[in-house]
Write a structure and sequence with these properties.
This protein is mainly alpha-helical and 181 residues long. It has one domain (2-173). The chain is built from 5 helices and 3 strands; from the N terminus they run ααβββααα. The two termini are 26 Å apart.
Length: 181
Amino acid sequence: MGESKSINVFLAKIFGFYFLWLISDNWLSHVWGIFNSIWTYIYHILLLILNGLSTNVLELMGYEIVSNYRSIAIVGSYGVVIGDQCIGFGLIYAFAALISAYPAHWKSKLWFIPAGAFIIIIANVTRIVAIVISSFNNGEFKGIEQHDFFNYLVYALIFILWVLWIRFVVPERMNKSLTSK
């Protein structure tokens, strides 16, 4: 019975985090001035990180890049425009919610959430770089719908990170706390 209760608590927390996201991203960010400013600033910072890292990777690969706030292109191609839905804020939030909802010490959460967010950002940079190079080579991105495909890959990545955290980080922290008592 205790295990069933902890699963229910975990699921309730996940749904609570999801509801909080829906309220924040779809309502509060549009009607409450100070919240809108903070929310927009988070998107802005993530966009700057994504654009900057993607541009740097492409330049390290030897491409001549044209970049502004929302777009990146190799000279002679159309490139890509990075919209808010491409930034990965929702994916990072989902990862943070999953780790936060799981019953474990906050010390492990405080370092694992930023590490996982960094991995998600690197995956997103890889996607942007691939799209920009594809645009340069083919004139456009050809193939499957990249936005949905990327989300599925990152969902799998988030699940793998969560399993690794449960399997290797949480037991280590739990064992240390039990042996110190």
